[in-house]
Specification:
Elements (H helix, E strand, L loop, with lengths): L1 H35 L10 E4 L2 E2 L9 E3 L2 E5 H7 L5 E3 L4 E6 L2 E6 L4 E4 L2 E4 L5 E3 L2 E4 L5 H4 L1 E6 L4 E6 L4 E6 L3 E4 L8 E5 L4 E7 L4 E5 L5 E5 L3 E8 L13 E6 L20 E4 L2 E3 L5 E3 L2 H13 L3 E2 L2 E3 L5 H9 L2 H18 L3 E5 L8 H17 L3 E6 L14 H7 L2 E5 L17 H14 L7 E6 L1 E7 L5 E7 L3 H4 L8 E3 L4 E8 L2 E7 L2 H13 L4 E5 L8 H8 L4
Parallel strand pairs: 1-13, 21-22, 21-36, 22-25, 23-26, 26-27, 27-28, 28-29, 29-30, 30-36
Antiparallel strand pairs: 1-2, 3-4, 4-11, 5-6, 6-7, 7-8, 8-9, 10-11, 12-13, 14-17, 14-20, 15-16, 17-18, 18-19, 23-24, 31-32, 31-35, 33-34, 34-35
Helix pairs in contact: 6-7, 11-12
């Protein structure tokens, strides 16, 4: 009896040991497969392979196939193709963008609008069980993709056309393994002479491939021959400006004419931004160009400058006008069409959107405007730049911008790093103190998470002369850089270095009033230019031409190593 009990215990131990070993092997194999090549779902759902990765397990909703049209949910489109895809409930349309395309598709008509032109397609967006589905197989041109529905293996493959694509041929019948591990599942079988897509070659004699069935796996590299490149990787689009951007705004009022710069040259400058365009009270762009503006364009191009004119919404009552445009998809598109038409008409190289004084609650809709504008500019090979203020400030001055989105979408975001203490300030202070500029810039880089090479730092060619009366009332007047010495009563006034602002500072009495000025000069501007180099920013923008001392251009050129 004791012997039988011992044998039973021994048998139980063997069974338990076997079960434990089986679980360990199963976990190991399962873990390895899942983390190297995702095992294909054997259930009824369709597997989705995007750029040779099986992302089925990451889908929010299943792939939907109806009448040979392949649909993905709006959430999945957002995850894998367009994070800014947007449903406009007012016009009952989905708006999506990708590089140089912006498209809108509705829920009733088999029509899609691409970059302002309507096109017939086989299907429209649908709402099924409170989920919006987009007919992605009808939008291959929008996302620049190739898509295949392999019904026999329940796999849909999507490949980006800007990625490299290679093919190879099997020299013998082969099993395609889920991994290069000794214990690996067979995911497909390929016959001698069949073609596969070559994904990568491993160092251990295996190659990762995709079969014609859409299955991902590994075969021995020695069994592959006739490697052919079907498509090369698309080259990155070249930038208009090589090296640092050195932009100067060339402002003139709506009632003035473009300045005559014939026979002049601005040393080191590579971009000029004249005040060509502004919105009127009806939301229509007015072009203040005329004959003088045409001569300006000829002068700029003759000197090798790119022209990125301003589009401004300045003026009384424009807060309401701008809000009306941002809140209406059709009005936004109309404004974009106006900008596109102006760019074509005047053969300019880009645009500088300088919208200020906007409603805080319109922040996301202003971002929509930039999201929808930028692809239209890219289609023409033009640059989109957007001016924004410092991250901290009032609702209509600062909190009306989503700097992260603007910096992500536009070619450049320009930080107007001035008016630290502006016309409405109740105390005197620098126009652009170094410490404030640096602190704000760090917020752009770290809090807003904007790529440094997309940030242009705006610097002022002006400062303010502050007057504080005996009662403590503060007012100021703008003094241009070239007129600073004229604004001071005499040259004997002592200048002290403010190490925080990194500016020369003067203070003196004029009768019963105290006068203060933080001076913008070569010394102060050099410290700001150092921030550009230290943080690998895209360049500088200076406000504005005509306010400067002429010798500043040589400093800009040398400090930014502009050829």
């Amino acid at each position: 009896m004791e012997k039988i009990t011992k044998e039973n215990k021994k048998g139980k131990k063997l069974i338990i040991t076997f079960i434990i070993m089986f679980i360990i092997i199963a976990i190991f194999v399962g873990f390895y497969i899942v983390n190297n090549v995702i095992v294909f779902d054997q259930n009824a759902s369709t597997n989705l392979v995007i750029n040779n990765k099986n992302i089925t397990s990451n889908l929010k909703k299943q792939v939907l196939i109806q009448d040979d049209v392949i649909y993905l949910s709006k959430q999945d489109i957002a995850n894998f193709f367009d994070k800014y895809i947007y449903e406009d409930s007012k016009v009952q349309k989905i708006i999506t963008t990708n590089e140089d395309k912006v498209a809108s598709i509705g829920f009733n008509s088999d029509t899609i609008n691409v970059n302002g032109s309507d096109k017939r397609i086989k299907a429209h967006a649908i709402n099924k069980n409170d989920t919006i589905y987009i007919p992605i197989s009808e939008m291959t041109d929008i996302y620049n993709i190739e898509i295949k529905n392999i019904s026999s293996s329940k796999v849909v493959t999507i490949d980006s056309k800007d990625r490299e694509l290679k093919r190879a041929t099997l020299t013998s019948n082969s099993t395609v393994k889920s991994s290069t591990n000794f214990i690996a599942k067979t995911v497909d079988k390929v016959k001698k002479g069949e073609n596969v897509y070559l994904i990568s070659s491993e160092n251990n004699g295996w190659s990762k491939i995709r079969t014609e069935n859409g299955k991902l796996g590994f075969v021995k590299t020695a069994k592959l021959t006739n490697e052919t490149t079907l498509r090369v990787k698309a080259e990155e689009k070249s930038k208009q400006i090589n090296g640092k951007v050195n932009l100067v705004w060339d402002y003139y009022s709506e009632v003035a004419t473009a300045p005559d710069r014939t026979n002049t040259r601005i040393e080191g400058v590579n971009v000029v931004s004249p005040a060509f365009f502004h919105l009127d009270s009806k939301g229509v762009i007015q072009a203040n160009i005329g004959e003088s503006g045409q001569k300006y364009i000829e002068w700029a191009h003759k000197n090798g400058y790119k022209i990125w004119p301003m589009v401004q919404n300045a003026g009384d009552g424009m807060l309401k006008v701008t809000s009306g445009i941002m809140n209406d998809y059709n009005k936004r598109q109309n404004l974009i069409e106006q900008i596109v038409r102006m760019c074509k008409t005047y053969k300019i190289d880009g645009i500088n959107i300088d919208f200020e004084n906007m409603k805080k609650e319109d922040k996301d809709l202003y971002s929509r405007f930039i999201i929808e504008l930028t692809p239209r500019m890219q289609e023409l090979g033009l640059v989109t730049t957007v001016d924004v203020t410092a991250p901290d400030g009032g609702d209509t001055w600062s909190l009306c911008f989503d700097r992260h989105v603007i910096g992500d979408v536009a070619d450049y975001i320009i930080f107007m790093a001035y008016d630290e203490f502006g016309s409405s300030s109740s105390e005197a202070g620098p126009t652009a103190g170094y410490d404030w500029v640096k602190l704000s810039l760090n917020k752009f880089l770290k809090t807003e998470e904007i790529e440094s090479n997309k940030i242009i730092l705006g610097v002022p060619f002006f400062t303010r002369l502050w007057t504080i009366d005996s009662k403590g009332y503060v007012k100021s007047s703008v003094v241009t850089m070239k007129n600073i010495n004229r604004a001071l009563p005499n040259s004997n006034i002592e200048k002290k270095w403010d190490d925080g602002a990194k500016q020369n500072y003067v203070e003196y009495l004029e009768g019963s009033n105290t006068k203060k000025m933080w001076i913008e000069d070569i010394e102060s501007l050099k410290t700001k230019l150092n921030l550009i180099n230290e943080n690998n920013l895209a360049g500088v923008g200076a406000w504005a031409k005509g306010m400067e001392n002429e010798d500043i251009w040589k400093v800009f050129k040398e400090e930014l190593s502009i050829k």
